[in-house]
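User: quick one, fold this
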Amino acid sequence: MIDLHTHILPGIDDGAKNLEMSLEMARMAVEDGTTILACTPHIYPGLYMNTQEGIKAECAKLQKALDVFHIPLKLVVGADAHLVPELLDGLKTGRVPTLNDSRYFLLEPSHHVPPPNFEESVFQISASGYVPVLTHPERLVWIEQHYATFVRLAQRGVWMQLTAGAILGKFGKRARYWSERMLEEGLVHLVASDAHTISMRSPKMADARERLI
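Assistant:
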């Protein structure tokens, strides 16, 4: 199983706080059936000032620790990039990493309010050759009023990624409803853990996978 969205790197955003937690998250992921995991810390100018260079360095350090402790998990690089005006330039210059050096990258819009010119901004990035993977749309506060926008985005090549916990109701009835609706309407491309900790936001995905089968 592949998990394309986790905040497992220690101490660089709001995910794992230290190496000990990162290792425990990795063990949980392996026990749950994950063999490849994407390290995707936030990139949000002014708050989380991560770059591809720094993420790759931290990913390599964690991979080395996993190997030392014989945890059979392969790490790849990515980022949960917030939709800001300089995002496209960051992708083109390599400051913002794509998923494992592919055309795909995780795109996180504002959680509480729709970004200005949201749809146009996403299509502009798509037109430049990248494939945005929109993270956890089911959990966005404003999805009710703008659901048609997500439908259009999915129909025009933008990938939608649900959070495993949302499918299971761990983020409340509302997120579960939108997860189920998007699944029923065939809008979902990926499911990932969006793991931050070893508790509620854990890297476990097997239960959600079973629900989808």
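User: anything notable?
Assistant: The first strand starts at residue 2 and ends at 6.
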